[in-house]
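seq:
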Amino acid sequence: MTLDDLPTVRGAPSVTATQMAEADRFTIRELGIGGERLMENAAHQIAVSARLLLGSVWRKRIVALVGYGDNGGDAVSALRRLAGWGAEVIAEVVGPSSKARPSLGRELGLLSPAPALIRYPLEGDRVGSPDFPFQNADLLIDGLLGYSTRGAPRGPIATFIDAANQTSRPILAVDLPSGLDPDTGRPLGPTIDATATVTLACAKPGLLAPEAAAFVGKLLLADIGIPHLAFERLGVDTRDQFKDGDLVRILPA
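struct:
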């Protein structure tokens, strides 16, 4: 099975970054569905998407580009699942663990016992291009920036994006390609050129913009367990988007 075998939908409802943040907040704080559970669900869908993109992950080298936030945690958690499916996994973390959100620190700790390599290639403010193992990867997972990021990528994040784009390796973006504005679809600066993007819970309008297609690649939508109520209270109807499956491909409207 490949990405092309997934159920398809023509267009999809979407939520802005502000609305998505409110849906997340409502789900976790008001409905009591914990962030760890949502991250586990997201990680499973990312891992499944990686397997569909590659055909098989057995003995494939999969490298995650790991930012400081929850997208980085999603990517690391997905690596743990992929390692269990027989992949060789590497987490390339943009900075020291002291800058990581607790969710990312937790996932890095859980990944450590797996047959995995965790690296901090820019630690110590090294000058010049880091020694990334990107050219030898079968797949890169972009977990650098999420929907709440504002402004152009800079510093280590920009370095990671440029290094990834300079390879010929396929890239799977988590939620949206790092560097892409979630609301407008415009690149804010250096932006990941994804082969495919798996967006979580609900599409973001920028992903559906025609000018974003070259960065987004094939657009997937994954159910991670956020109830319809979290979006309905924002005036967005998501009841039908997973009627054919919990992972679907969005085609242009």
